[in-house]
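Hey, can you fold this?
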Amino acid sequence: MSRLSVVLRAVVAALVLPVAAVSAPAVAAPAVPGGPQRQAPPGFVALAEVDPTIVQEMRYAGVHNFTGHRVEGYERPRCLLTRPAAEALRRAQRGLLRQGYTLKVYDCYRPQRAVNDFVAWAKDLGDVRMKGEFYPRVEKSRLFEDGYIAAKSGHSRGSTLDLTVVRLPAWPTRPYVPGEPLVPCFAPRAERFPDNSVDMGTGFDCFDTLSHTLDPRVQGRQRANRLLLKSAMERAGFGNLPEEWWHYTLKDEPYPSTYFDFPVR
């Protein structure tokens, strides 16, 4: 048996969610004219159908995210992408598996209704329940001005995703307990929420300039880990958002000007 086959078996066995929970077909159907989108249009797939070895930890389908609540539009914790993006991600995964790592996605396609939920949350200045972890050095009143929240997101086009790298074997991240003490997302790795990701210098969705992919203050192993992800994704045809080490978009995305609003289900 080849080394890659052994690695593939190891990562499948260690997925955060059972494959059966995320691999149901994404039903493709056009939106009802004049009505809300209820199903994915042709061209979208569930990532687990294309590559079940990629770990999925869909943060906005739960409460461990900067809003502190399950975000509107996430009816199931699974990653949906356009087929070209999913196939490109599979290419990136192949290269990382050979090095003893796996990709882990935090967010993939994001309905416009979820983006609207973010906007409504950002306008509610009294809701700062997750500030201690996700934006400890930023006033919530500045989230729009500083670019952390916007009315449109590339995620809604279906070819943008947020992800990280996990060293194999990929032991699951422990569940978040609502109300537990929060630690700043830029604290040392041993003190932050115990994500099974390699150390990227900050946690996912850290609203801080330390999250900039090439921030000069991030050096050593943390910088090497960011560059490992960046290199793998760029070779597969993705481009990085410089302000977020976790954010990548397929360069030849099939829907560059269309923002979808069907729910993740």
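Oh, and this one too while you're at it.
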Amino acid sequence: MKGRIAAAIAIFLLIYSLLQWGIGWHGAAWLRQLFPGAGGAAFWLPFALLAYAYLIGRVLSVRFDAAPLRALMRLGAYWMAAMVYLILMLPAADLAVWLLGLAGAKSPALFVGWCVVVALVGLIGYGSWNAWRPVAREFRLRVRKPAAGRGTLRIAVASDLHLGALVGRRHLRRLVRDVNAFEPDLVLLPGDLLDDDLAPFVKDKLADVFRGFRARLGVYAVTGNHDPFGGSGGAAFAEAMASSGIRMLMDETLDVGGELTLVGRLDRSAGRYGLRRADLEPLLAGADRRRPVVLMDHQPLGFAEAEAAGVDLMLSGHTHRGQLAPGHLITRRLFDLDWGYVSRGAFHAIVSSGYGFWGPPIRIGSRSEWIQITLELEA
């Protein structure tokens, strides 16, 4: 097993390095158009640091939690997004240079290079705005079940916070402020609260921020594939969530104030921790299905199973809607729904693109968001 992991890492690094070399070659060639004689170590050493900044920061942050490492990771994360779009743009740029050269244009590489730079800066700026300026998406849904003293239930949902080295206290405080202004009855967090590592959560005292949520029926969450909920870190994760005022539901069904039945499933990644994810129907055995049944399941799969089990509302995240277009063309084929809302008779499902982000603090073709749900119940 260790040999296969090492081989996979080696193959990844080889492919990654070849891609970086290709991008760097284009950059050096363009700089020589601007400044004859430019290049060499004066270009390649800073470029190599930029190209591997995120990987270096990620590896070192396992042992060290320091501000310079966070800055290195953030720089590298922006480069990761730039790399994706350069891989897409450079073949077209090469073709444009060739065609302009055939047409007799002077210095076509210089002109096309500037076009690539302007387009890239524009994309990064636009994507950064989408990532750091979340929006609230509103849904009003009717559930044909009797209300327990209230005709409506207001639910705030925020998935995929990815709190860690890049997403921190300031972003979380904004979420708490905006959610409290909504005056929800219930706050639900459908997975990926953390970004693999618990250390930044503890160091930045994010539990103090989480305790700022105000909801009559409480704050509940489920695990996501980036939450360290198993293995040696499982107990520390559970303790951190408990200290945050968050009730983690790990394959559990809970009666919430006599007003709804809440189901929280372990993420599908549970197997890597040696945990077995329970089937949905046994989880609902004995549950009061006369009340609205709300299910949190991080990955938006198994809609048919949820509908057959009598779930009224399923809440998921995970997909980030691809985060960087055209990634959404892939996610829409991998999941039952990769973003938005769908209904099938009495069954409703909402998939959020997430409040945070993974890797680059960039969103293109998606937007950081949280969800406002008003459930209308029968009188």
